[in-house]
Amino acid sequence: MKKFKKLLVASVFFTSLVGPQLVIAEGVFVLKAEQAIFATQKALALGQQVSAQLKPQVVRFDAMGGQLQALQQRLEADKELMSDDEVLQMKTQIQNLNMEYQQLQQYLSNAKLQAEQNFLTSMRPALDKVLGQFIKDNAPALIINGNSVIYSVQSVDITPTVVELLNLEP
Description:
This protein is mainly alpha-helical. It has one domain (27-168): Protein Binding, DinI Protein, Chain A (2-Layer Sandwich), CATH 3.30.910. 76% of the residues lie in helices and 5% in strands. α3 packs antiparallel against α4 (84-138). The chain is elongated and about 80 Å long.
């Protein structure tokens, strides 16, 4: 009886080590939902719209960057020829321009982030609908967040399929 128990324990232990490798994961899919949403035609249109809306600020930002760089180069090149007051005045001008430049950069980043967040929120019902239909049609055992996956074969990634389905949504 003791030998049988030992044999049973050994076989259970062996199965616990080897068993997971023997299981075939049928019906397991990977989805990168945010990537799918931002790969849609609506997302591309939004990107163009946001770029058009922010174009004046981007042009101003680029011009300020060039102006800031030119002032810094001028200060370095002409520092020896300038009086202490002129150097101080130019450093103050550079500092003020740099602060304004950083504020504009922050504004542009926030505007883009806000547009992206609003878009994600607006697309969530469409994603839920598409996933519901996918689940109904394919009866998956599991859909895993693709951003958390270390490795998967491409055949289980449904992100391109979800993009196609989202593009069909009105």
